[in-house]
Amino acid sequence: MAPKFEKAKAIEKENIVVDGVDISGHWNRMFEQRVITEYTPELIEKIADIPNAESFANCYQCAKCVAVCPVDVVGNYGPRKLYRYAQTGMDLTEAPELWLCTTCANCLRVCPKEVNMVKIMPAAREQAILDGKFVPNELQQAFENTAKSGNPLGQPQRKRDAWIKDAGVEIPVMKDLGRKVDVLWYVGSYPSYHPRGIDAASAAARIFTALGIDFAILGKEEKDDADSQRLAGEKGLFEMMTEYNIETFNKYEWDELVVTGPHELNAFKNVYPKYGFERPVVHYTTFLARHLDKLKPMLKHPVNKKITYHDPCYLGRHNGEYDAPRQLLEAIPGVELVEMGRNRENGYCCGGGGGGMWMDSFTAKHTNMRLSEKRAMEAASTGANVLAVACPFEVSRFSDAVKSTGNEHVDVLDILELLDRSMRGE
Amino acid sequence: MNIVVAIKHIPSIADDLPVSGNNVDFDSVDFVLNEFDEQSIEQAVLVKEAVGGTVTVVGVDLIEELDNILHLAIAKGADKAVKVTADEPGADSHMQAKWLSEAIKGLSPDIVFAGVQASNDLDGQIGPMIAAHLDMPYIGGVSSVEVADGTATVNKEFAGGVGAKYSVSLPMVVGVQAAAKPPRYAPISKVRQVAQTATIDTVEPSGDASSGLTFKKMAPPVATGHAEMIDGSPKEVAAKIVELLKSKGLA
Ligand code: SF4
Ligand code: SF4
Q: Between these two residues, B183 and A326, which has the higher pLDDT value?
């Protein structure tokens, strides 16, 4: 039987002469051999040889990642570029690029080859730290503070629950309570010490109390989760804090752990199981959304604002929670919720993850704008007058960013603060 | 070269100091490494890196928690650690200097580093007293040290930004104000590794050298007066200051 299709033939002239010059060639002839040996794979292998950073070598340079990398929007970045830089002579363990990734995971979402910066970066950074390579000073300071004081801000451990006396409601502390509770609320370092964080923590306490939740906090026994320090390369510090935290959590009886911050959620829910801690952990947005039926009638006072919500990387992409925060905001009377162009799965990063929280000045030197500033501008361009957040890193970052970009008219508020306002009518 | 660093574990003043009876409430206060000792450990490691040798860190274990500090020092580049097991949280600088000297003697040091002072006794005496016990010269307020051919060249800081360079034949004791470089960061992974593998030598406290001081009373300072803020334009403020000085008979 004759073949159905004939093999295609290249349409080709035997001889082409243009302006007297013979430029004849074959359709697939190379005039010169393509140089593929001028780059050595050594510096790529150097990274891929580090345990957990193997996927660095998977990259086949499709560049899908660059289009979604938040750092590339304000500079020159993304896994593809790092791979290319390594190919052309950059030792990632010694380059400033090592510290720019926020482990936001947007590249991983689109990468066909599963190049995983969330694993590569901590591993390569740990290697650099152990080898005594350059580590940004500000980051070292945060490590030291965490190791010495139990929080990256360097505040005294004894003052960790000093905020509770001004919260306006009774906040039980596990140690004094001496009984089982339904909810152990892990407040977190920024909500315990940072003035804007304390605003959110106090709001949370009032909301929990109004809902009649049987909760308590660890008070002076609470220490930082150190997840961002882990992602910034200080695994030993993370493990030290983890041992302490697990022991403290297990000292008391409770049914569910509610956290204020997405980074804590990530640590306790996704990483602690490796260290033998497997108990229910939820972010406050998920927790409150569950109580929405009871909460909604309490939200009596309208908050007449146009609000846009920023998805924290570690709540959204890392933990899949996109709806609860929006449900809470929509439950507040008077609120008009508008979305920024980059939202949900493709949400932009505030720049605080992966240790970025403590490298602002360093990062600023290697980008043309802070990520938080870029995002503040995106928020302002929606016409919103409130930028709502659900991560304790973000309130201070965005408050600075709206000022530095001339968008002071945009208020940066935690969802907790907005709920509290609607409840109390301020 | 035998490099020795004498360190001090002191109550943390990151928070209000708890007082009980006539002394600090040692049970409810955190202990930390004296911050000048962080500088002196760094300076010792820098000297070792420049000329070779071993760095031995020696401290008095006041509350049985010194191991962490010694592990940290090893992670930063020290080679050996020795603790004097005193279990006496209130031991003053005279006692500690005596115990440290006894422990250091056996190490035949070429150079001994100590932090220039500590925030508990604040007398800056550990270094000079160790020097006296070991019969060595002492220079304090030092901000850099270089060693070559049995001689140390040290920079000493004086008030008003004046500095002086001294050449001293070793052995000697140096009171470190600041290391030539900021103290390095020791990754906790490394500290934890050290904690598993390092051995810490233990010696009993020997010798007695109390300062002879006894505490009669210790109490947090009471705020008496407070500052008066003067508002207004520069002119108004100046006028008010003149008036104030006159009213106090000072102008
Ligand atoms: S998306 Fe993945 S494979 Fe494509 S360039 Fe980026 S890292 Fe490489
Ligand atoms: S994790 Fe985020 S910041 Fe890092 S390379 Fe990927 S997209 Fe860029």
A: A326
Q: Which of A300, A325, A302 is nearest to A314 (CA)?
A: A325
pTM: 0.84
Q: What is the pLDDT at residue A251?
A: 96
B38: pLDDT confidence band, cut at 50, 70 and 90?
very high
Over the range A385-396, which residues count as b (16 or more CB within 10 Å of their CB) and which as e? bbbbbbbbbbbb
The residue with tokens 């928020």 is A379
CA A105 to ligand 2: nearest atom: 1
The CATH number of domain A10-130, selected from 3.40.50, 1.20.950, 1.10.1060, 1.10.8: 1.10.1060
State the pairing for strand pair B138-148/B31-33. Answer: unpaired
ipTM: 0.73
pLDDT in the model for residue B72: 95
What distance in Å separates residue B85's CA from the closest CA in chain A? 23
Q: What is the reported pLDDT for A18?
A: 79
Give A295-424's CATH code, choosing from 3.40.50, 1.10.3470, 3.80.10, 2.30.29. Answer: 3.40.50
Q: Which of A130, A149, A157 sits opposite B187 (nearest CB)?
A: A130
C-alpha to C-alpha distance for A142 and A215, rounded to whole angstroms: 30
Q: With cut-offs at 50, 70 and 90, classify the pLDDT of residue A212.
A: very high
Alpha carbon separation from B94 to A48, A83, B29, B202, B209 (Å, rounded): 55, 60, 22, 20, 6
Backbone angles phi and psi of A253, in degrees to 5: -100, 130
d(CA A304, CA A38): 62
The DSSP call for residue A267 is I
| Interface touch A234/B189, C-beta < 8 Å | yes
Q: The domain B2-203 belongs to what CATH superfamily?
A: HUPs (3.40.50.620)
